[in-house]
Amino acid sequence: MIYRTLKPFVLASNSPRRKDFLTDLGLDFRIEAREIDESPLTAEDPTLYVERMAKRKASVVADLFPGEYVVAADTAVCLGETILGKPADEQDAVEMLLALSGRSHVVRSGICLLNRQLNREVVLSVATDVHFVEFDAAVARSYVKTGESLDKAGAYGIQGSGAFLVGRVSGSYTNVVGLPLAETINVLKNEKIIDSSIN
Fold first, then answer.
1. Quick count: other Cβ atoms within 10 Å of Cβ 198?
2. How far apart are CA 99 and CA 182, in angstroms?
3. Where in the sequence is the domain holding 60, given as residue range(s)?
4. Do residues 114 and 121 make contact, with C-beta atoms less than 8 angstroms apart?
5. Tens of pLDDT, residues 26-75
6. What single DSSP character describes residue 144?
7. DSSP conformation letters of 167-195
8. pLDDT tens digits, residue range 145-190?
9. pLDDT reported for residue 60
10. How far apart are CA 112 and CA 174, in angstroms?
11. Catalytic one among 28, 45, 74, 195?
């Protein structure tokens, strides 16, 4: 155990990766996630989009548990100003991957901590630059056939076999996985929700 939980909190996410990150640090929390409309607004800035999504995810859960701290996050893969969500099907996944081949893109995550009863809200975002190696359509199709692409923004998972697509990362690796862990821990510590396990 690296951290101890001082105040109970809720993780508003069904992502196994986000759950594992926090569990591995020894944190005690429960999961209460609700589905929301994740469609970007017309010409919405990618940073504002992930922050809005994180706030919305936290808000719908905080409505149910107004006296508790709720932590939510949203991650998007951005090619320029274009937000790449989860692919609709295998062909869409292949097209996304080929658009990223040999190019740099930005993975952005929004984080929101919300306590409705205390009227306390903290929102921030984190950006990581990711550069893909160059590959052809046959490689993209083969990777998509693994099934790893279809539930991930940008159609790849850096923590899985999709790691071979990545030439370099500049910034938070855990952000690319789906939760900027250092920044999330800082928010929880600053709000005195968690503390180091040894004092």
1. 8
2. 30
3. 3-196
4. yes
5. 999 999 999 999 999 999 999 999 999 999 999 999 999 999 999 999 99
6. H
7. EEEES-HHHHHT--HHHHHHHHHHTTSEE
8. 999 999 899 999 999 999 999 999 999 999 999 999 999 999 999 9
9. 98
10. 16
11. 74
Please say if the pLDDT value at position 1 is more than 90: no
Domain count, the chain: 1
Spatial distance between the Cα atoms of 60 and 178, rounded to a whole number of angstroms = 20
Active site residue 195: no
User: 77: part of which helix (H) or strand (E)?
Assistant: strand 69-79
> How many alpha carbons lie under 13 Å from residue 47 in its C-beta half-sphere?
6
Locus of tokens 């504002």 = 48
* Distance, CA of 187 to CA of 140 (rounded, Å): 38
The answer to whether 78 touches 84, Cβ cutoff 8 Å, is yes
Token pair listed for 141: 């199709």
Provide the 8-state DSSP code for 153: G
The structure tokens 């594992």 sit at 20
Quick one: tokens of 154? 């940008």
Q: Count of CB atoms within 10 A of residue 34's CB? A: 13
Taking the CA atoms of residue 4, residue 8, residue 12 and residue 15 in that order, the dihedral angle to the nearest 10 degrees is: 30
CATH number at residue 137: 3.90.950.10
pTM, 2 dp: 0.94
Average pLDDT on 96-110 reads 98
Closest CA to 109 of 60, 58, 72: 72
